[in-house]
Amino acid sequence: MTDRIVSAPRLRAFMERVFAAEGFDAGEAAQIADVLMQADLFGIESHGAQRMMYYHHNLASGSAVVGARPEVLRETPVSALIDGHFAMGQLTACFAMRRAIDKAKRTGVGLCAVRNSSHYGIAGYYTLMAAREGLASFSMTNTGPIMVPTFGREMMLGTNPMAFCMPAEPVPFWFDASTTVVTLGRVEVYAKRGKPMPEGWTIDGEGRACTDAGRMNASILSGGMGGILPLGGEGEMHGGHKGYGLAIMVEALTGVLAQGLTSPDMSGAHGDHTSHFFLAFDPAMFGDPADIHARMSAYLRRLRESERAPGQARILTPGERAFETQARREREGIPVEANTLAELEQIARALNIPGLS
Amino acid sequence: MTDRIVSAPRLRAFMERVFAAEGFDAGEAAQIADVLMQADLFGIESHGAQRMMYYHHNLASGSAVVGARPEVLRETPVSALIDGHFAMGQLTACFAMRRAIDKAKRTGVGLCAVRNSSHYGIAGYYTLMAAREGLASFSMTNTGPIMVPTFGREMMLGTNPMAFCMPAEPVPFWFDASTTVVTLGRVEVYAKRGKPMPEGWTIDGEGRACTDAGRMNASILSGGMGGILPLGGEGEMHGGHKGYGLAIMVEALTGVLAQGLTSPDMSGAHGDHTSHFFLAFDPAMFGDPADIHARMSAYLRRLRESERAPGQARILTPGERAFETQARREREGIPVEANTLAELEQIARALNIPGLS
After folding, report:
1. Which among B148, B256, B318 is the nearest to A245, CB-wise?
2. Dihedral (C-alpha) A8, A14, A15, A19: value to the nearest 10 degrees?
3. Hey, what's the torsion of the CAs at B203, B238, B190, B212, to 10 degrees?
4. In sequence order, what are the beta bridge partners of B111?
5. Quick check: ipTM above 0.85?
6. Which of A9, A172, A265, B341 has its CA 20 to 30 A from that of B72?
7. Chain A residues touching residue B237 (CB < 8 angstroms)
8. What are the two backbone dihedrals, phi and then psi, of residue A307, each rounded to the nearest 5 degrees?
């Protein structure tokens, strides 16, 4: 099989078919597919169709449960603690962010901590829900252990991404980043392509720089020593301790605050039984929302129009490339890699449903 | 003059004397000095006595104003918008975080956006105020332009630090980091010592790596092209776009949200007319606070006790070294560099008050 361009509606329909066949009702299947499609439309292939096989395994093993429903355990006008009961992370996360949004609309701010969830896709998906209603928001999750602490060699922290979004024109300021140098998804993509990684992304069990993506991916998935470095790299010279600190912050706001599992207690690098944190607030508490919106847009424009480094065609602001990619992929389709296509066909056969083609 | 060890009470008394002579009342002078002393006690020399001359100049030039009082412009039970009226940043920030704490105690959460402030010292000082009352909190500020965007060469963002603190034993999880690879303070310290910087911290006006701290410091202070790189370094290969994104996030939550100045409109690299953001919340909204506290402490301990990389004596957690340094410096005194000592003596002469000695 070779790489192929698949139209967005066709890929979406396939994903919905898969999740319906897994046992989800139509609304749930559409919701899960929408999160994955957003990743593929934004060009974040590591979190789109590429993850279908992972979810398929999760559902088979029972680490994500069809029919489970998130439950609110504690609630105040500004907060909720939610137990996901191991429902698909996308469903629980939508439920939790919806609640944070509703609270923000009533009181100005809503904070939701979630435990016993599962892999929820791209953190930033949920911040778009808030942005569509004029709210600023955070979304964070812990994940299975994958990051080594500064000066350590044991995977003790997840990729632990943090997303933040604030409405702006022509596209929102949409920031979504792991607190590692790179995500496991990137390592997987290099491994699938058989390409060496740049130095400074991972260290092996002996604490040496490792560029072998296949070996590193296998080691991470088997829970060996070594792992991905924090944003800022090895040691403290280039701020690796800052990435490490940000990752602990995400852990504090997710696994600790929600009284769920922390990364090292999760099974598998992607992490079952993840915890999430959502915070939405209304900028209108602080002033005329149109004025704040215009200021955000103007500042982002100034960044894009500032002096470029020699040889650089363009200065981007976070989210810009994602929305451009979405516009293009909605017109032209989504490139899907051969390896991923093969996995999708395998899933279709296992579920006895029509494949992509 | 050579480097010298100064006892903490003596240094504190000197700072209070200076700010009293500048025109602040005793309570204000003690408050400002406490923020600077916390930096020196924690071993963050760049933000302690070393900054006295900067504040002295700010007060002389009127970019920080003696006698100014912060004013609440808008308020809800969970939020406040505050105008600092160019009071010393430490005073305005204490006022704002106090308000966020009070709101968090009544409603569960408090968000305060502040504009027209001035340099407020270490971001993390204010999160300690919340931690002492059992609350988790964020503190952020924008600063004068110093960071170049990913693929850019014009300073369009500040050091834009973010601090987060969550109570724990034996010391809180205390994270306080600029979103640049390094702070201007670090560059200044290298410049004062005449030492070259590591590669990957800054780029010059032609977009080339620059290790000359003196030249870079002068260029930054004069507003030339080039500047400090975002956390993650140059380009996107090692996540420089993440540090850049985090810096914009801080800008969005400070200058934009508070409708103050954004970094490129500030004069001077440290930044007058800064904006801040504070968020405090009560973990008790989400569960038994003693349980959450115990979970945080246990997770931090696990990190410290995890497998070390070869040749490393120790794995730290954020805040640990700072609190240890404080304990030592309270016993043994604070090392003050010769250059800084000379500046302190100069300030004492200018204000006609007794010097340190």
Report:
1. B318
2. 160
3. -30
4. B79, B279
5. yes
6. A172
7. 198
8. -60, 125
